[in-house]
Amino acid sequence: MTIAAPLTPWACETAGPVRPMTGSAVPLRALDLFCKAGGATKGLQRAGFHVTGVDIERQPRYCGDAFVQADALNPPFDLTSFDFIWASPPCQAHSPLKAVTKKEYPDLIPQTRAMLQASGRPYTIENVVGARLRDPVRLCGGMFGLRTYRHRDFENSFLVWRPEHPRHTALTSTKKRKRDFEAGMHISITGDVGSWCGPACMGIDWMTGDELSQAIPPAYSEYIGRAAIDYIRHRVAA
Ligand SMILES: C[S@@+](CC[C@H](N)C(=O)[O-])C[C@H]1O[C@@H](n2cnc3c(N)ncnc32)[C@H](O)[C@@H]1O
To answer: What is the tens place of the pLDDT at every residue in 29-46?
Structure first.
């Protein structure tokens, strides 16, 4: 992992146009904008991408292949250097907690979408349910055997099948979560619940509780990352 200074245009050095997967030793490159400690990044790596993360704050536990500290809406490199772009703009503008805190947060989704569309690269924008995404695919922990339901929506510039959504049959704990978890319940990952629930609930074992509470399970981005690779492979073959 490289912690690069802001505005270091290193990412342009080795990147090129979309590469075919078959027979190529060079992995496809993904950019993870607003990466935090890398829940989305981990799944993209598992799908087969080399991943560069961008966050405005330093991320000492970021799990990706390279890291650039910068404003994701003004990235210090050419977006067309990447084969696929993932973006997880902050969700506070759409979160139900907004009603409690009564704070106003900027909605960065329209600006993010405009930037990604201008790049011409396949992209995914991830956010909470209630965010104004276009025709999103909703994923749920129940689709991946996780012990949290944690719905998240994904706007994709390419086709992603909606997996079957299993019924929620497990009880979900929102208080005294450690005790209830040990008793076999699912738990809700909100606030700084602690890192103990990471492996079983999120498939994450490298984050603090705070990082975990803002992450998506890597299983979600692995699922979408695989669809992105299929799309890129077919586009190259066509
Ligand atoms: C919801 S978290 C992303 C979590 C990540 N997708 C995961 O799965 O672990 C949003 C991140 O956006 C970052 N952020 C907020 N505004 C930013 C900006 N303008 N440029 C880059 N990062 C920003 C925050 O520091 C935070 O780490």
So the answer is: 999 999 999 999 999 999
Q: Which two tokens stand for residue 161?
A: 């099948």
Distance 22 CA to ligand 1 centre (A): 33
Domain that residue 62 falls in: 3-164+217-237
pLDDT at 92: 74
Percent of the chain with pLDDT over 70: 85
**DSSP calls for 183-224:** TT-EE---SS--GGGIIIIIS--S--HHHHHH---HHHHHHH
Q: Ligand 1 mean position to 59 CA, how many Å?
A: 10
Task: Specify if 174 maps to a domain.
Answer: no
Do residues 82 and 68 lie in contact, with contact meaning Cβ atoms separated by under 8 Å? no
Residue written as token pair 């997996």: 163
Helix (H) / strand (E) element for 179: namely helix 177-182
Query: Looking at residue 46, what is its pLDDT?
Result: 98
Residue that has been written with the tokens 């790596």 in this structure: 45
Task: Pick the atom of ligand 1 nearest to 36's CA.
Answer: 27
Domain count, the chain: 1
Read off the tokens for 162. 């909606």
| CATH classification at residue 95 | 3.40.50.150
Ligand 1 center–CA 67 separation, angstroms: 13
The answer to the question of residue 192 being in a domain is no
Residue 91 CA, closest ligand 1 atom number: 1
Q: Taking all residues of the chain, what is their mean pLDDT, rounded to a whole number? A: 88
In a domain, 15, yes or no: yes
In a domain, 197, yes or no: no
User: For residue 229, with 0-12 CB atoms within 10 Å meaning exposed, 13-18 middle and 19 or more buried, which class applies?
Assistant: buried
